[in-house]
Amino acid sequence: MFRTAIAGSLPKPAWLAETHKLWPQWRGQGAELADAKRDATLLWIKAQEDAGLAVIGDGEQSRQHFVHGFLEQVSGIDFEHKVEMGIRGDRYKAMVPQVTGPLALKGRVHATEAQLLRAHTRRLTKFTLPGPMTIVDTVADRFYGDRVKMAFAFAELLNQEARALEADGIDIVQFDEPAFNVFLDEAADWGVRALERAAQGLRCKTAVHICYGYGIEANLQWKATLGEQWRQYEKIFPALAKSRIDQVSLECLHSHVPIEMIALLDGKEVMVGVIDVASDAIETPEEVADTIGRALQYVRRDRLIACTNCGLAPMDRHIAEAKLRALAAGAALADQRGGK
Ligand SMILES: [Zn+2]
């Protein structure tokens, strides 16, 4: 049976936060907000199990944004005075916190939701953290004066949290590195090294999710400039193939990424994106199984994990639920087809 998993994020229910936004405002505060985050996490664990997914995540219900959620527990960062900065190669402007001193963890970042996840499913669990290069691209540096140095400082902190997640019983720790797709030479040069530093010493599985982003307008416009064939992965995958990271993702449905890029990941497990996050149309099981079939030309079936192209956070909640069911149904159909 093909394994199935989501990339990471899921929509937040309307009673938890603003909907259809990447940086939503929370509805409540204090103890009430903490309860609401917990309730939303439990709800999505159940929804993923009901859909039939093999690997279960927390849906990132407890963090406002996948990078800033981690940074909130890091000292040396000034969240009070955010500044506007162009991120991902100036693709969009964001209000980002500033690094003003040496970085250190104030304590555990994701203990509550990781332990909640572990306690409420018997299936494999996956937990996501932002990758060092993507963090560096989402903060303003007023202290280190060197992107590489700052990335390794963050990698050390990520490693502390990743080891703690492993101790919580998490089976797969995934680092999200959308910035790899933007800074290709730097990614192959020091990005992968910083990532390995973040994953150093882990005995659980490790994964990296690189992608062309959520289905928001700024990304759609950027994608339109990338040409007929998206060959960015050609530069990054060889470095990742040589790395110690176990699993690598790529978008395969409705994407301009040539599917033969998978061949560059020889020896790795591949999270094959079979669910489009930029469209509200629900994939049919046949469509999902067809995409899995195309990927199987380049990856062994026991190394293929059927996955969403990216996170589902900005989507409508009911559409996301339907997409989870389509993912599981399509993987089951591919299995029935005997992997052809
Ligand atoms: Zn993504």
By secondary-structure content and strand pairing, the structural class works out as alpha/beta
Please list the strands of the largest sheet in the order they lie side by side: 1-11-10-9-8-7-5-2
The major pleated sheet works out as: 8 strands, parallel
**Terminal-residue CA separation:** 13 Å
Q: What gross morphology would you assign?
A: globular
- Give every kind of bound small molecule, once each: zinc ion
Present the secondary structure layout.
Blueprint: E1 3-5, H1 30-51, E2 55-56, H2 68-71, E3 74-87, E4 92-105, H3 111-119, E5 124-130, H4 132-136, E6 140-141, H5 147-167, E7 172-176, H6 184-199, E8 205-209, H7 217-224, H8 233-242, E9 247-251, E10 269-275, H9 285-295, E11 304-308, H10 317-336
Parallel strand pairs: 1-11, 2-5, 4-6, 5-7, 7-8, 8-9, 9-10, 10-11
Antiparallel strand pairs: 3-4
The structure holds zinc ion.
Structural overview:
This protein has helices spanning 30-51, 68-71, 111-119, 132-136, 147-167, 184-199, 217-224, 233-242, 285-295, 317-336, and strands at 3-5, 55-56, 74-87, 92-105, 124-130, 140-141, 172-176, 205-209, 247-251, 269-275, 304-308. The model has no long low-confidence stretch (mean pLDDT 94). The chain has an 8-stranded parallel sheet with strand order 1-11-10-9-8-7-5-2. It has a 3-stranded mixed sheet with strand order 3-4-6, with helices on one face. It is of the alpha/beta class. Helix content is 37%, strand content 20%. The chain has 10 helices and 11 strands.
